[in-house]
Amino acid sequence: MPEIKVTPLGAGQDVGRSCILVSIGGKNIMLDCGMHMGYNDDRRFPDFSYITQNGRLTDFLDCVIISHFHLDHCGALPYMSEMVGYDGPIYMTHPTKAICPILLEDFRKITVDKKGETNFFTSQMIKDCMKKVIPLNLHQTVQVDDELEIKAYYAGHVLGAAMVHIKVGSESVVYTGDYNMTPDRHLGAAWIDKCRPDILISESTYATTIRDSKRCRERDFLKKVHESIERGGKVLIPVFALGRAQELCILLETFWERMNLKAPIYFSTGLTEKANHYYKLFITWTNQKIRKTFVQRNMFEFKHIKAFDRSYADNPGPMVVFATPGMLHAGQSLQIFKKWAGNDKNMVIMPGYCVQGTIGHKILNGQRKLEMEGRSTLDVKLQVEYMSFSAHADAKGIMQLIRMAEPRNMLLVHGEAAKMEFLKGKIEQEFSIDCYMPANGETVALTTNPSVPVDISLNLLKREMTLGGPLPDPKKPRTMHGTLIMKENSLKLVSSEQALKELGLNEHQLRFTCRVQLQDPHSDSDTLHRIYTHLKSVLKDYTIQHLPDGTVMVESIVIKVSSSAEDANAKVLLLSWSYQDEDLGSYLSSLLKKGLPT
Amino acid sequence: MMGETEAVEIDDILDDWFIESLKSYKDLHVYQLEHPTQIIEWTSGKTVCVAGYSSGKNEILELRLPLRLLADEKKGLCAERDFKVVHGGFSEGPVCCLRHIPGTRCAVTNDGLTSDLQLWDLGADDTDVIRKTGSLPGTSVSQAGSRITARLSSPPQVLHGAQSSGVQLTQLSTGQTLYRLEVDSTKPLSSLKFASPPPGECALWWTDASAASQCRVIMLSSSGQAVVSDLRNLGGALCQAQLDVQTSPRKPEDVTVAWAPALDGCFSVSGLSGLVQIYDTARWRAELQDASPLFQHAGHSVSSQHGDGSAPIFITTHVWHPERPRTLLSAASDGSVHVWDWVDPQTN
């Protein structure tokens, strides 16, 4: 039976590194290639030895697909393609292709320059890796080869995030990556059609949560900013570039207007440069409505938000500054942080995850004394606030997605099976589908039931009908005789004569003959008659005839009797049958070899 | 194509209530369950149970409160704002009443249609499934559901009944009835605590006697009159007031009144006005006077999903956190569950 195999790579129950192998219709696909951000050694890379023990992966993989630019989904990509070795196609959406190399380079810089690691990919490797990328558009079917096709769907979550539909023949799989089902301000909600894949693969990480509303997250953000400003403090918000940053800016601008606040809000220059670049990407990725209400609000035309100059950091009084980079590991945001860290009236709001080795990561772990260059220490007295704005699906969201796609089976990765029995039961009950939860490194093999459409020729159908007998019934299949022709991509069932004609072949007849020696003193005609009587009593369901020309016929098998030349009491039976009656012919010869009853 | 995008206008969310909430709440969390709940029951200092009450199959969920709410000093460093579904199970019928048996991982439910009880194992660390372990038959022949209460005892016991005459104390492990209340009354009970119910009159009354250390009982009538009495002298009133309420409840179960476990003299009420109101009885007198709430939580009606006003949503239940002085959880008929930590307006 055909099978689809799914294996989340990696060991243990670790979350934080997405890399899933799918084998479907003879094709091998790698879904995401993430880095585990919690480890410093090789455990942070997925375990590629599952694919092959030695050497390059090119021959073993048909393609690699990356869902979005977060490092836990693409962080190990340059390592995989350049250090382990893979030269095949890597698919991702346009925004992912634009943003990935920047994040990878930042990540590389932090890991190598700040943490001094050596076994890591280089800048050149990132460039070489990205040369292998083929960008995807939403809802466009891409033929990876003549059998494998893929299609990207909108996932929400972050700019450029996609869910991917993979099809080989009539088997298919959908991988969600990270997605959200409630719309964000600058991103819509994930959407997919009723594609009914054999398997829907999703993360289980958020499957057992119920999300707090966006309003409350925004409320907390505005509350903290407002409280700091009111006590005369300065607020630093390190951000990446587009998307979340712009959303927070619009939120603050609207709040400032509503509350008639006077404190200045700034936007650092590094941010504006990057923002322009992504602005264009963003326009094509969003829909009409978002474009109209969100993107067209040019970020440099805010009433209350102005471009930052680094001298402003020393100005007295309250202010809010958005600056890059997002993890406080270098550049302007770090410079500003150093100036403001010593004052407990100030605040830094971290809106996202920070990689190990960055200042952002350290302060989010509660560190209040930081070692800076030149052995100086920085006392962290300002208030540190970690706020998560990332959009994820939750338990309800998973159910909504399943309702949308109508998969035949569900598969959840990165969870502990024992802790997800309830969710599994819920999915199984509500949708009557099986829910699998492989551990990392464990393979789930799912038998699929693809329907193979076959056309039957009218002549053949008519012939079968005239043979009579019961009508064909799924519970009682009926044997029929025909020839299956596979031409181009179609299958058809025709009669043998028609097949021979189409293929331009001559039909050959095959006849077997067999001689059976029998001890029988009777005359030839008596022996023949005795054979006839014997067969008639044994083979009740068959047509047996005693013909005037001195032969017995069983269906189309001919039996003749003649006397043996050597032995007067022996008879030689000649049996002759055509290929079609092979079974009956062999049976008769064995039967007659046993002799006739007396 | 993308999924539905709600109006991206940020101006929409900055409504008056939202702006006010910046000052009036320390913490505010708003959740949307798939199905509304009538019960919020503490199963530990960090976890609550909620359950559906539709006529068919329903879910029972044990939710862990968001870590950010519970992380006091380190709050800023904790970004986790979501409920975690730590255990879940299925009930064949509605769950109208659920009680956790203190000191155990056992819960008892009633479907609001008969007086029978169902017993559940809420599950330990190695599983996330809530399983039904048995049932206890009730004595009442009425069509109304039972109220249930329990306190720490060994072996575990539960007090339950649909009517005054049907109240019994049952030992959970054996199903043995230990005591039966001999009262000649068929009045439906709206709440049951380990204290005797108040004298009934023509109006419906609700009570909460959990401020047992103070020996104080609060009794609330359907017209919004609140009377505080001493447990030992239920007929007399220590103080009373007319609350600021607008609506009459449709069913007795709609109203919840509860003393604040950690705020002396404060109590909360929901079901009489579409809001959760908190009153401070400190300045109440023995003569009936009008009282204004110290604090009102309007979050459910403001952020209601049923924006078109087709069926006004109502608060199905609310509870105080057993230790945190101003933390409450409230649930409404649209499936929303709010967790809020309010700021005492008097301390500004």
What features would you highlight for this structure?
heterodimer, A: 598 residues, alpha/beta, Metallo-beta-lactamase, Chain A, Rossmann fold, 4 domains, 7-stranded mixed sheet, 16 helices, 30% helix, B: 348 residues, mainly beta, Methylamine Dehydrogenase, Chain H, 4-stranded antiparallel sheet, 24 strands
Describe this structure in words.
Chain A: Residues 245-363 form the Beta-Casp domain. Chain A: It is found in: Cytoplasm; Nucleus. Chain A: Residues 16-229 form the Metallo-beta-lactamase domain. The complex is a heterodimer of chains A (598) and B (348). Chain A has 598 residues and is α/β, with parallel strands linked by helices. Chain A is 30% helix and 24% strand. Chain A has four domains: 3-210 and 391-447, Ribonuclease Z/Hydroxyacylglutathione hydrolase-like (Metallo-beta-lactamase, Chain A); 214-386, Rossmann fold, CATH 3.40.50.10890; 455-503, no CATH class; 511-594, 2-Layer Sandwich (Alpha-D-Glucose-1,6-Bisphosphate, Chain A, domain 4). A seven-stranded mixed sheet of chain A has the order 6-5-4-3-2-1-23. Chain A has a seven-stranded mixed sheet with strand order 7-8-9-10-11-21-22, with helices on one face. In chain A, strands 15-14-16-13-17-20 form a six-stranded parallel sheet, with helices on both faces. Chain A is elongated, with a radius of gyration of 37 Å. Chain B is built from three helices and 24 strands. Chain B has helices at 16-24, 67-70, 299-302; strands at 25-32, 41-42, 47-51, 58-64, 83-91, 97-100, 106-110, 117-121, 131-136, 147-149, 157-161, 168-171, 177-180, 205-208, 216-221, 225-230, 239-242, 256-259, 266-270, 276-280, 295-297, 315-320, 327-332, 336-342. In chain B, the strands form six sheets. Chain B has a four-stranded antiparallel sheet with strand order 1-24-23-22. Mean pLDDT of chain B is 80; it is low at 3-8, 183-190 and 192-203. The chains are: A alpha/beta (598), B mainly beta (348). Chains A and B meet through strand 12, helix 5, helix 6, helix 8 and strand 20 of A and helix 1, strand 1 and strand 5 of B. Strand 12 (209-210) of chain A pairs antiparallel with strand 5 (83-91) of chain B, so a sheet runs across the interface.
